[in-house]
Amino acid sequence: MLSINFSPGEYYKRSEIYDQFGGNRQRGISASAKESVIFIFSGASGGQYGYSDSWNEERILFMYTGEGQIGDQAFSMGNKALRDHVNSSKYVFLFHRATNGLYTFDDQLTLIDYEIKRAPDRNGNMRDVIEFIFESSSNIERSLLNNSEVTLQNIDFSLDELKQLALQDTSNGHETIQVKQVTVRKRSEAIKLYARRRAVGVCEACLLRPSQVHH
Fold this sequence. Notes:
- The longest helix is centred in the C-terminal third of the chain and has 22 residues, at about 175-200.
- This protein has six helices and eight strands; from the N terminus they run βαββββαβββαααα.
- It starts with 10 loop residues before the first strand and ends in a 7-residue tail after the last helix.
- With about 220 residues, it is an alpha+beta fold.
- About 25% of the residues lie in helices and about 25% in strands.
């Protein structure tokens, strides 16, 4: 069971996060060496390297540019970790640079999709960059509570069927973002039902998918 608690809007020292979780002190994407978590440290200075990280107007989707300042970005290191975080059961936490080594915690994220776009690198040369499209995990939870259209409670799924639903990947294929969001919600609900059905001492939802199931 993941027992990491960050409060939205609170300030944290990156050095202390590193001391507790390990990872990389400098990169924008830092995978913990001790826990199943990946930290995104977003900063305003990324614009000079072709990075553009921001929420959409509804503050539901967060667009994040992958790492790599020169040449085409590739799915290696941090970029690979983010792309595969659902299948590898890793949680993603978003922080924004504040000042003097401090970062504010924003939200937990779940990958919906990614796109390859053209943008200049640090030297001004055009190259391929990876834009990850995340959804706020808080928003997913609210939707599960308020939207009966995605509930699986009244359907008699077997354990194997629930497990397959929980293991659905939205980062491939050509569905719309809206369709992928519904899939993520169904996947999150399937994790909860699977965990309840198993009813064992260890929360098996943690072994399947990153999602805030402990409420």
